[in-house]
Design a protein that fits this description.
two-stranded antiparallel sheet, mainly alpha, 3-stranded mixed β-sheet, 728 residues, 13 strands
Length: 728
């Protein structure tokens, strides 16, 4: 029976997804040579022939001699290569003037149409455009630099629940506290890698997941219908699982209705009640009273509505091929945009009473939830965690000094608390996140070294003599975690936080030890990764994937600084990508691999004396020498002429970036992706421009930005899956 429900899920997923339809041509396809002469040929001449013409064929790609008739198949591979590079924004390169995005889109559309006539497609490239971490490929100026020309909407879709939503779902319907005695296995997961983790089209429910969901559903119903220590059975269910008493039809209906209300926040329709009553009778006949009743109740937990956010849209299709989300869809969309717990009673009541049918209605509810301190809104903090990626510090092993335990969760929690503090102020949020010299420092530790309620205790070892008694040798001083913030060793803990750090040493999240440790290896910095993050997350640039043929290893030269070792990346083949990362990441060389500020760094002295290695069995080591840190950097190819130029260090870099309108716009693009669950397209220009306007006019309020996004056409409308795909 649960398997049938699982198959129903798969069927509904297939039916709910918008599909491209094709109409078989009555005549043999004909090449559109007029379109080539009108759009493609002029585009090639203006943007491509310099590198791919008669005098130069970069990458062995020549466009001056390409066959304009794609249908001959003569140059089919060349046409596919062009289409893929256009789709991914890799043609023309960043160093060349950017073409008009709409003209480039027309050229790509022509190539795709001609390829389709011959049964060819570039689906892989287009699919890649929709994946997390690839949203920057849409031309930035086309999104923010021109008046919008098209109305926005999102595709009709089913959005699978996130692991966090499922973690709330089970305790809510069983009455169990998260982490309690009775638990079920987590069914859902998110993909590793760069970018936001919860994209609407990224995950489906496959057959192994359905099997686990079936086992979970059976266990959940057993918890709901059993007495025992720690269990909170549903009274309506106890009647059904009593083998000595046959329940009445009304009692069966009450139990079915209760499970619908628990799992779906609604009562069953008359048709659903009829189906589940019939299902109950069949299950009891086949498997007996107890098993049959529990199987019926478990099946309700496998309905698509219990596992997916339904975002199809209802009502009439407007002139743009869009449909407004239904009140119930909006209740779920609003709730899960901000929380993991589903719609509250006020949202459900508004949906039932027809008070969730306009943009103004949505604004009212979003504002209510954002301003209600009693409603937990974990998705807001999670946005910043996934955007800055500082929690990954907990995944990076560190060779911490003097064999001390590495406790990255202390640093991560400090940064979380700083973000919460800035969000509470809700003023110039992005600027503060990028430039503040305030920080919470070991904020989870009390003055006496005891953990505060619900906090992590800093279990640092007490400094002790590292030698045998009687030996006159210095003791090992263990580094305290506050020293990673540039505070003196004798700094005393205070609950008056955040703490002011030296303004010439700290500026925002990117100078927090958690972020610096996350973007470093176990014992040295990773300027390339740091620079890549800035290029993509703040400047909205694109760094191509590392070619398979490239050995991405810096030379092992302990006598050189990281900057000197990175000189190898200036080779022509490497520098076309590394010039986008290295000059930005090297500006952070004033910080070491655990976030300590420094003005000098240690390298091996090749002329120094050789000493025995204190590690038994290891070769001798040479003496170390101190060299000044070079933290100069450079901003170029940013898309903003006001940003271009050298910077003395990370502090100057961050203040310069924080003042840039482009950086603000790129941040808004990332916020769009997180709350829409997809990458932006050219049709979302109006949504992005309105969001920026709301953010600026509110003085940099994150609440204003989120409210504008959640009341935008991109959030509220869905393209009609039955409408012509050409319209969206």
């Amino acid at each position: 029976m649960p398997l049938a429900a699982g198959l129903t899920i798969l069927l509904l997923i297939a039916l709910a997804q918008p599909r491209l339809t094709s109409q078989a041509a009555e005549d043999k396809p004909r090449a559109d040579l007029d379109g080539y002469r009108k759009d493609v040929e002029p585009f090639f001449k203006q943007h491509c022939l310099k590198c791919h013409g008669p005098d130069k064929q970069k990458g062995k790609l020549a466009l001056h001699s390409i066959d304009a008739n794609v249908l001959t198949g003569k140059d089919i591979e060349r046409w596919k290569a062009i289409a893929e590079r256009l789709a991914l924004g890799e043609m023309p390169p960043d160093s060349e003037p950017r073409p008009d995005a709409r003209i480039a889109a027309r050229v790509l559309a022509w190539i795709k149409a001609e390829l389709a006539k011959g049964g060819e497609k570039i689906a892989d490239a287009e699919r890649k455009l929709m994946l997390p971490g690839h949203g920057n490929r849409i031309d930035h100026d086309a999104l923010f630099g021109r008046p919008p020309t098209e109305p926005a909407a999102s595709p009709a879709r089913l959005w699978r629940f996130s692991p966090q939503i499922y973690s709330h779902f089970v305790p809510r319907i069983t009455g169990q506290k998260p982490g309690g005695k009775y638990q079920v296995g987590q069914v859902f997961s998110t993909a590793p890698g760069e970018g936001f983790k919860d994209y609407a089209d990224l995950f489906a429910i496959d057959e192994p997941t359905i099997s686990q969901l079936m086992r979970n559903a059976e266990k959940i119903v057993e918890m709901q219908s059993s007495r025992g220590p720690g269990l909170r059975p549903v009274s309506e269910f106890l009647t059904l699982v009593n083998p000595h008493q046959k329940p009445s039809s009304e009692q069966v209906q009450q139990a079915i209705r209760k499970q619908f209300e628990l799992a779906l926040f609604r009562s069953p329709t008359a048709e659903e009640m009829k189906r589940f009553l019939a299902l109950y009778e069949k299950n009891v006949k086949d498997a007996g009273q107890v098993t049959g009743a529990r199987t019926t109740l478990a099946t309700i937990l496998l309905l698509p509505e219990a596992l997916y956010r339904m975002e199809i849209g209802g009502g009439k299709t407007d002139e743009h091929g869009r449909r407004f989300l239904t009140p119930r869809e909006l209740a779920y969309a609003i709730a899960f945009a901000l929380t993991d717990a589903g719609p509250d009673a006020t949202l459900l009541k508004a949906a039932e009473r027809g008070q969730l049918t306009t943009k103004e209605d949505v604004r009212r509810e979003v504002t209510r939830i954002l301003n209600d301190q009693q409603i937990a809104k974990p998705r807001i903090l999670r946005f910043f965690e996934e955007y800055f990626e500082f929690p990954t510090a907990e995944e990076v092993f560190k060779d911490f000094p003097n064999k001390q335990p590495w406790r990255p969760e202390i640093l991560v929690n400090d940064t979380r608390r700083l973000i919460e503090y800035i969000l509470d102020q809700d003023k110039d949020v992005l600027k503060e996140l990028l430039t503040t010299n305030k920080s919470f420092v070991n904020y989870q530790i009390s003055p006496k070294g005891q953990p505060l309620p619900g906090r992590i205790h800093n279990k640092e070892p007490v400094p002790k003599d590292a030698t045998k008694p009687g030996r006159n040798k210095p003791t090992i001083r263990y580094i305290e975690y506050h020293e990673l913030y540039s505070l003196p060793p004798d700094w005393k803990w205070t609950d008056k936080q955040p703490v002011e750090l030296p303004a010439d040493q700290r500026a925002g999240i990117l100078t927090q030890p958690s972020w610096l440790a996350a973007f470093a290896t176990n014992n040295e910095n990773h300027a390339i990764r740091r620079g890549k993050w800035i290029r993509e997350r703040l400047l909205g640039g694109v760094v191509p994937d590392l070619p398979i043929s490239v050995n991405a290893q810096l030379p092992d030269a302990p006598e050189k600084t990281l900057r000197q070792r990175m000189e190898i990346t200036r080779q022509e083949y490497c520098w076309q990508c590394h010039q986008k990362m290295n000059p930005l990441g090297l500006a952070f060389e004033n910080y070491d691999y655990i976030g300590r500020y420094r003005t000098t760094e240690q390298v091996v002295d090749p002329t120094g004396p050789i000493r025995p290695n204190p590690v038994k069995g290891q070769p001798p080591i040479r003496a170390m020498r101190e060299v000044p840190v070079d933290a100069t950097g450079l901003i170029e190819h940013s898309g903003d002429p006001e940003l271009e130029g050298p910077v003395a260090n990370a502090i100057e870099l961050m203040h310069k970036l924080a003042a840039s309108p482009r950086v603000r716009q790129v941040f808004i693009r990332h916020a769009f992706r997180y709350w829409m669950g997809r990458n932006e397209t050219l049709r979302d220009a109006a949504t992005l421009q309105d969001a920026e306007r709301a953010y600026v006019q509110s003085g940099g309020s994150m609440k204003a930005l989120i409210t504008e996004l959640l009341t935008s056409d991109s959030f509220l409308y869905r393209f009609d899956p039955k409408a012509s795909p050409a319209s969206h």
